[in-house]
Amino acid sequence: MSWRKGKRVAIVGAGPGGVSTALAMLQRGYDVKVFERQKEPKALGGAVLLSVPVLAVLREYGLDISNFGTHTTVEFHNRKGKVRASLPFNPKVEQAFDIKGWHYGVLRSSAFGKMLEHLPAGIIEGDAALSHYVESDDAVTLHFKSGKTVEADIVVGADGINSQVSKQAFGDPGLFHVGLRIWLAWCDPISGIPPNTGVISHSSKYQASYFPMLHDGKPGYEWWIVEPCKENAPRPQNVEKHVRHILNDFADPLPRFPDATDFNHQIFCWDVYNRPSLQKWSKGRVVCLGDAVHPVSPYAAYGMGMAIEDGYFLAKFLNGKDLSFSASIRHGFEQYEKARVNYVNHNVEFARKLGGIFHSQPYPVAKIRDFVFDNTGFLNKMIQRDYLGDQEAMCLSMKELHVEREYL
After folding, report:
1. CA-CA distance, 219 to 285, in Å (whole number)?
2. DSSP collapsed to 3 states, 15-81
3. Cα-Cα-Cα-Cα dihedral of 281, 286, 290, 295, to 10°?
4. Short-list 146, 119, 117, 115, CA closest to 130
5. Distance from CA of residue 280 to its chain's centroid?
6. What are φ and ψ of residue 54, in 5° steps?
7. pLDDT band with cut points at 50, 70 and 90 for residue 78
8. Is the CA virtual torsion 65, 387, 159, 107 positive or negative?
9. Of the residues 140, 156, 262, 281, which has the fewest C-beta atoms closer than 10 A?
10. pLDDT of 68 strictly over 60
11. Residues 296, 303 contacting (CB under 8 angstroms)
């Protein structure tokens, strides 16, 4: 492996964002090394939703996206099954990317595994926990806890919500618990559900949702529950009983999902943390992406996808630049931040806002909220204005990934 001055990109963290950055930078002729604190990269969690621009990026990397899943119509329901809002497809986006729909469900391990398959052998080094970095005028040196050092032209922090790179560059992240806990599961197919349909439903206290997905080409469903909880609240001893109790208050088919789920292997739980939004993701020769600078609440349904997009955009704006020169790096980082920071912060903050609306309102306010959402188009307008509008504009700006073929 070559390690040429002016081309050296050191990435800390071998998650989806780090691997996306590696794939994109390698495509553009840079020398890349990825350092992972674990022995080998692992896909944590269950199923994820990947949107059309993320699939277009993965296709650009050479992945076959034909078996990633099927397009899904997304609806918001109340707990009794009444439709409150529907997320429409934008035909201009579909035509531009030649990809039907908007959201695709897939197991995180399946999607991430396909990304790793496209990464050349030897790029990722495991058991490489970062201690700190030291920056000079013309390079940055990574110091690992093992005592090893590596000199690079730039460092990309893709090491998650507790990022060592981000902490050194920007200080204490100020992580805070958002008052939510997630139960995320997947299962085999369930009968009686309309095809290509995903539902996000709410009672006065809980969210319970499901989406069709593929795992290694086999159909199934991902489903999840969002519940309010306090930080460090103990988890129930009997998870299945707890989950069934919540789902029994929702319309069919949600109460049937536990019957098709292996609770020993097919459900994950975590509390949701976030951080105040940053306006700068770079400092000198160091730049961060993904959860290292913008952890995403579940209402964005977009954490893995945002990290993949970040890596693509970072490489796009560094393309062709000699990384020996600080001015070239600064210009590339500024373009990257201009394209991503406000867009991502808006999505993260809107997701946090939705979590507050659905899970943090006192009883009288919650009753009024439910009446408004059940009997007006307010929720639909809010989602279209604050979520879909920015997403569609970003998609249409990614012209280098457009195919421009109409569907037959």
Report:
1. 44
2. CHHHHHHHHHHHHCCCEEEEECCCCCCCCCCCEEEEEHHHHHHHHHCCCCCCCCCCCEEEEEEECCC
3. -60
4. 146
5. 19
6. -65, -45
7. very high
8. negative
9. 262
10. yes
11. yes
- Euclidean distance between CA atoms 226 and 182, whole angstroms: 5
Q: Which long-range CB contacts under 8 A does 140-145 form with residues at least 24 apart?
A: 140/10, 140/284, 140/285, 140/286, 142/10, 142/12, 142/35, 144/35
The torsion of the CA quartet 391, 273, 74, 404, rounded to 10 degrees, works out to 30
Asked if 88 and 101 count as a contact pair (C-beta separation under 8 A), the reply is: no
Give yes or no for a contact between 313 and 24, defined as CB atoms under 8 angstroms apart.
Answer: no
Residue 196's pLDDT is: 86
Residue 200 token pair: 């996000």
Q: How far apart, in whole angstroms, are the C-alpha atoms of residue 216 and residue 146?
A: 37
| pLDDT at residue 405 tops 80 | no
Strands 154-157 vs 149-152: parallel, antiparallel or unpaired: unpaired
Single-letter code of the amino acid located at 317 = F
Tokens 């290694």 belong to 216
**pLDDT of res. 408:** 29
Instruction: Quote the DSSP letter at residue 384.
Output: I
Strands 176-187 and 267-274: antiparallel
* The pair of three-digit structure tokens given for residue 208, joined into one six-digit string: 């319970």
Give the whole-angstrom CA distance, residue 360 versus residue 366: 9
Instruction: For residues 124 and 118, give the distance between their C-alpha atoms in angstroms, rounded to a whole number.
Output: 12
Q: Whole-angstrom Cα distance, residue 196 to residue 74?
A: 9
List phi, psi (to 5°) of 176. Answer: -140, 145
Q: Are strands 103-107 and 47-51 parallel, antiparallel or unpaired?
A: antiparallel
**Cβ burial, residue 92 (10 Å; 0-12/13-18/19+):** exposed
pLDDT at residue 215 in the model: 74
Measure the CA–CA gap between 320 and 332, rounded to whole angstroms: 10
β pairing state of 124-125 and 130-135: unpaired
pLDDT given for residue 390 in this prediction: 84
What is 8-175+275-401's CATH topology?
FAD/NAD(P)-binding domain (3.50.50)
State the pLDDT at residue 407: 39
All residues at 6 or more sequence positions from 279 whose CB lies less than 8 Å from its CB, including other chains: 341, 345
Q: Using CA atoms, how far apart are residues 253 and 176, in angstroms rounded to an integer? A: 34
pTM: 0.94
**Structure tokens, 49:** 């939703």
DSSP state of 386: I
